[in-house]
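Blinded run. Sample ID left blank on purpose so nobody reads anything into the name before looking at the predicted structure. Input follows.
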Amino acid sequence: MTLLRQSIETCILAKDGNRPHLMSHAFASDANLVMDVRTAEISFPTTVKGLTGISNTLVSQFAQRYENVYTFCIGTPPGSETTFRCDWLVCMTEKLSGAARVGFGEYEWHCRDESGLISNLKITIEEMKTLPCESGNSILAWAAKLPYPWCPRDLPLQTAPNVPATQEIARHLAGCK
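Blinded prediction complete.
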């Protein structure tokens, strides 16, 4: 397994599982995070500097609001490259309201040296749908059956539950915009 791939998988595991202690195995201490949020359904700071800030933003603060988080990197994992882009899909629930959330966007990962630690991450959030609590069980059951964290591009569409927002996102990820 390549070091960048391992860092990406560690970041996803740390975020989804509320494990901030793992972030030092994914990010360089002076790493940068840039967020391009294109929806009003969720908010994040536009830039975060340093491992501590990134860990607080992506793991600790995120886990205060959301649970049952499944993040999928769509497509083939990176090989030996030091820069890697992939689409992503997230399914989760809000802790306070129980509402389901489904979203997608793009990750752009960079590592600057042979350590494989992430030095720069750009997260683009294209869409984040908030759905009624009743949608949660079918969305989480769907997410639990998808390969984690690397998911083939066409699989979410093939298996998406009968929830219009979810099917719309799955179509977009499959390239059927």
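Unblinding after everyone has recorded impressions. The two ends are 32 Å apart (CA to CA).
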